[in-house]
Design a protein that fits this description.
There is one protein chain. This protein has six helices and twelve strands. The chain is of the alpha/beta class. It has one domain: Rossmann fold. A hairpin with a 2-residue loop joins β4 and β5. The longest helix has 13 residues. The chain is globular and about 35 Å long.
């Protein structure tokens, strides 16, 4: 059976941080499902302006951790800031963490991990402005392209996407 990865995103996701890992996962043989609070299409952010739109496969209200093998949290400043105010999105993150399934968060994506209160004692990285939030929530913050601590995979920025994607693929292969 093909392993499935839930990608949690909304408007303002960093385009490369959703599209590139999604493509790498699919190339490696995994199924990806984009879930958002809203149905239809969500618009990405590309560098300094709006980018491509991505089809939403399911709303966050219709998915559950039990249907997936891993969770991917792309960054972008707007995307995780909006999602961390959504109880259903945070409950999904908590459910994946409690189940011990891989959770991969890049750039500002770890804000969702902070909001779900699952970072205490974990070694993690993120975009520089999010590192204080991680540290204040009890994480051991490092500055490296990918940090893997148990089921948590975190990265800093779009330049880290190849290592980030590979770490998630490796976690799913085990």
């Amino acid at each position: 059976m093909t392993k499935r990865v839930l990608i949690l995103a909304t408007h303002g996701f960093e385009q490369s941080e959703l599209l590139d890992p999604k493509a790498a996962l699919e190339k490696a043989g995994f199924e990806t499902v984009v879930a958002s609070p809203e149905a239809g299409m969500i618009k990405g952010w590309h560098q300094k302006d709006w980018g491509e739109s991505v089809a939403v496969d399911a709303t966050i209200y219709s998915v559950s951790e039990g249907d997936f093998d891993a969770l991917l949290l792309p960054g972008g400043q707007m995307n995780p800031d909006i999602l961390r105010m959504n109880d259903d999105a945070i409950n999904l993150v908590e459910d994946f963490a409690e189940a011990g399934k891989p959770i991969a968060a890049i750039c500002h994506g770890p804000w969702l991990l902070v909001e779900a209160d699952v970072v205490d004692g974990r070694t993690m990285t993120s975009w520089p402005s999010v590192r204080t939030d991680l540290a204040n929530a009890g994480a051991n913050v490092v500055d490296q392209e990918v940090a893997v601590d148990g089921n948590f995979i975190t990265s800093r920025k779009p330049d880290d996407i190849p290592a980030f994607s590979q770490a998630l693929i490796d976690a799913l292969a085990n």
